[in-house]
Automatic annotation (TrEMBL):
Name by which UniProt lists this protein: Putative hydrolase
Species name: Actinoalloteichus hoggarensis
GO MF annotation terms: hydrolase activity, acting on carbon-nitrogen (but not peptide) bonds, in linear amidines; metal ion binding
CDD domains found in the cross-reference section: M20_bAS (cd03884)
EC number annotated for this UniProt entry: 3.-.-.-
Family the UniProt entry places it in: Belongs to the peptidase M20 family.
């Protein structure tokens, strides 16, 4: 899928910030939520709260407690997604949802996903405290296992509700210790064999909105507080195994070596070179993980496992890049005399988000007096998956220095509050409109 052209940039004149309907987020509550969730981590720098661990479950319980206190009906589905609902006044009306995820990468930041959850919870607080009665139910969704750091596949909780991942996949995906995703889910009291029960019915939903940190520097460099996302990049993730011969570094002459790491080094540079090539403008290719065995200073590496991530907003170019990289990798292996095999970990197409819903978010920003730009997302998100079954929209708030997936990740509470005000305005505005428009059907992307 290729967008029709470069993302449009639109901004309103700077005006004093103030939500049109008086739903003003409280920065102190947002800060308290963020601070508490940051304590739910393994020891070490940043936040480490991996998918389907007790720490992830603890974070979900915290969100559930906040929502239960508001009188919301809260449940956890069979695969670990937490769903809370404030009822609407019209029986049977489809819900307007918002949320994100609470798991992290190892030594990650305290805002990725978390900002969207605390924003969605804060909207629930504002609606309850103000006595705002919506016709449609308002649902907060905290997705499980959005990060692919542990099992290689991103957005597992949202993929399941969209029907993109099933029970068989959960038995196939493993972490570095050989634990299957299904085993990890059972260890925290979930029921992967019943994953089909978690699938959403499109008739139950009007729209789903996700606030997220940008994880890039476009907003900060443009001095803008808000992004409205039009397209989300696709991602193809591969595991490549190179098999050489482990032998003594002193006893093995250079011309008799089969060095798996030397071959891997070529592939790392090849991935970078492909993404820089003018034919791949907009492609991002990364080797984010190298496992070197046996890993001894005086032993030539006999086996290297690489984790490769290729992203693009153009579906055809994304897959062409992957094919070109694999062809090159196979050639390097033959030339260097090492074995080569690969397996696909995950493959997700780019998604163009519904134009009618994007227009609703733009309208909310303008009514709130918040300057914005329409922009793409280079990262994958839960909205990308649920858009298969319900129209999804995304708001970005700035990331300092564009950093994410690192302890240095930072977005100010004031920036999150401003984005939350627009989110609240969008929810109330969509509820009043009762529909998104003729172009609002969920688009699965291809």
């Amino acid at each position: 899928m290729s967008p029709a052209g470069p993302p449009a940039t639109t901004a309103v004149a700077d005006r004093p910030h103030g939500p049109a309907r008086g739903l003003v987020p409280r920065a102190g509550r947002l800060r308290a939520d963020l601070d508490h969730l940051a304590t739910l981590t393994e020891p070490g720098p940043g936040v480490t709260r991996l998918a389907f661990t007790e720490l992830e479950r603890a974070a979900h319980r915290y969100a559930a407690e906040q929502l239960t206190a508001l009188g919301a009906r809260v449940r956890t589905d069979v695969v670990g997604n937490t769903i809370a609902e404030l009822p609407g006044s019209v029986p049977g009306a489809p819900a307007i949802g918002s949320g994100s995820h609470l798991d992290s990468v190892p030594s990650g930041g305290r805002f990725d996903g978390i900002a969207g959850v605390v924003a969605a919870v804060e909207v629930a607080r504002l609606l309850t405290e103000s006595g705002t009665e919506l016709r449609h139910p308002y649902r907060v969704v905290v997705f499980a296992a959005e990060e692919g750091a542990r099992f290689g596949q991103a957005c597992t909780g949202s993929r399941i509700v969209a029907g993109l991942t099933d029970s068989a996949d959960l038995d196939r995906l493993t972490d570095h210790e050989g634990t299957t995703m299904a085993e990890a889910m059972r260890s925290v009291g979930l029921a992967p064999d019943r994953a089909a029960e978690a699938r959403w019915d499109p008739a139950d939903w009007l729209a789903f909105l996700e606030l997220h940190i940008e994880q890039g520097s476009v907003l900060e460099s443009s001095d803008l507080p808000l992004g409205v996302v039009d397209v989300i990049s696709g991602s193809t993730r591969l595991e490549i195994t190179l098999s050489g011969v482990a032998s003594h570094t002193g006893g093995t002459p250079m011309h008799l070596r089969s060095d798996a790491l030397a071959a891997a080094a070529e592939l790392v540079l090849a991935a970078e070179s492909l993404a820089w090539d003018s034919r791949h403008h907009g492609t991002r290719a990364t080797v984010g993980r190298l496992e070197v065995l046996p890993g001894a200073l005086t032993t030539i590496p006999g086996t290297v496992v690489l984790g490769v991530d290729v992203r693009d907003v153009d579906s055809a170019r994304q897959r062409a890049t992957v094919r070109e990289f694999l062809d090159h990798a196979a050639g390097v292996a033959v030339r260097r005399g090492v074995g080569f095999r690969h397996r696909l970990l995950a493959d997700t197409s780019p998604v163009v988000l519904p134009a009618a819903l994007r227009a609703q978010l733009v309208g909310a920003a303008e009514r709130s007096g918040t300057a914005y730009r329409v922009m793409p997302s280079g990262a994958s998100h839960d909205s990308q998956m649920v858009n298969r079954v319900v129209p999804a929209g995304m708001l970005f708030v700035p990331s300092r220095d564009g950093l994410s997936h690192t302890p240095a990740e930072w977005t100010s509470v004031e920036q999150i509050a401003e984005g939350t005000a627009v989110l609240a305005e969008a929810v109330v505005g969509m509820d009043a409109a009762g529909r998104l428009g003729p172009e609002s059907a969920a688009d699965g992307g291809s």
